[in-house]
Amino acid sequence: MHVDHHDHENLSLLRFNALWEDNYRHDSLLVFSTGRSPTLYKELRKEKPMLTPDITIMSVGTEITYGYSMVPDDGWVEVLNQKWGQNIVREEASKFSELKLQSETELRPHKVSFYVDKVKAQTVTKELSEILKQRGVLNGGIDLDILPQGAGKGQALAYLLKKFKSEGKLPTNTLVCGDSGNDAELFSIPDVYGVMVSNAQEELLQWHAENAKDNPKIIHATERCAAGIIQAIGDFNLGPSTSPRDVTDFSDSELENVNPGHDVVKFYLFYERWRCAQVENCETYLASVKASYYTAGVYVHPSGVELSLNDGLNELRKSYGDKKGKQFQVWVDRVLATQIGADTWLVKFDRWESFGYELPAIVDSFPITQNFRLMVIRRGSLGCTCTIHGWKDSEQKIIRFGLEVLQVMVNQK
User: Fold this and answer.
1) pLDDT in tens, 51-90
2) DSSP readout, 356-410?
3) Which contiguous run of DSSP H or E holds residue 308?
4) What is the architecture of the domain spanning 247-410?
5) Cα 380 to the chain's mean position, in Å?
6) Per-residue pLDDT tens for 351-383?
7) pTM of the shown model
8) Which residues are CB-contacts of 209 (< 8 A; sequence separation ≥ 6)?
9) Which residue from 24, 96, 262, 285 puts its CA 20 to 30 A from 272's CA?
């Protein structure tokens, strides 16, 4: 995922988050590929509103993990072990005075990283590659990452696609996105769509000009970072490309197919705008929402606190505009809807709130929609567990409200 560090309100990421959870989470795989080590990647997730990917490729393609728990891919480890010897790498690299070993967090099982003067980087890389008979990957001109032969972002993706094919689950379409030189190999994978975001570095643009300028499946977006990904989805006609965050009037947005996840995303956008006074304080609208609910519905907060939906709606009235003028943002992650009856779905998701400079506070809230009746399953009735985790950094406070469980019933009006 491309994080725009110049976008202090994280609008591009939040737009992508809403689009993904609304339209793609249920039948697509989100893969993050980064040169960062697990330590730096986890630090970034504490600072930015990033979704939980289905697959994470880290350390310049040398580590592949799955899901929220980041379970390692043992098969990829075996592949890399075939042509690798970290002790040999360290021994040979120590002979170059130009190289300074990076911190321990950046020394991974299949990656040894050094700082090197930009002027000397090319010469050192060439000599080390010849000595080790392996491949050195240059990142940004000042960092040198030594990897096993056959490792890298592109090779990791090729491995995954081959694995999916062997399991009979090859994706219909694959879109890769990049902004730096070590992303070039992602665009070399056959049959993938590719987007270089508008803020792509010169080394990637040069690679494109020399190797792929006539490839219609690779474009240079006019939008930065995550917004460039949204643009590419639309340009390649890969699916819906209008983020729910770009919709100002949800009453005009109708669904062709039943999608409980859509209503979860839509409600929490309304909830954010309601508390920021970005929508009209309309009692008529809230009354119509209340009338559409299953009257015996109960909302169960991840902390275990239970609240009837009627009481919750009344509480929502009191919170109108209480975040006005503040950087208050809400997003949902890992939205999973499972149909458990003819007109009933079980929806699980994580809800996050960012409070900017304001101290975080747990808020009793509840999902509402116009197209569905919602009833929260009482915690424990289906063996569900709920947890609360909180993170914060020097610039903003982010809290994860944990797993929320909903039962969604089609409105039979």
Assistant:
1) 999 999 999 999 999 999 999 999 999 999 988 888 888 8
2) TTSPP---------SSEEEEPPPTTTT------EEEE-SS-EEEEEEEEEEEEEE
3) strand 306-308
4) Roll (3.10)
5) 29
6) 888 876 443 333 333 333 323 333 333 222 222
7) 0.81
8) none
9) 24
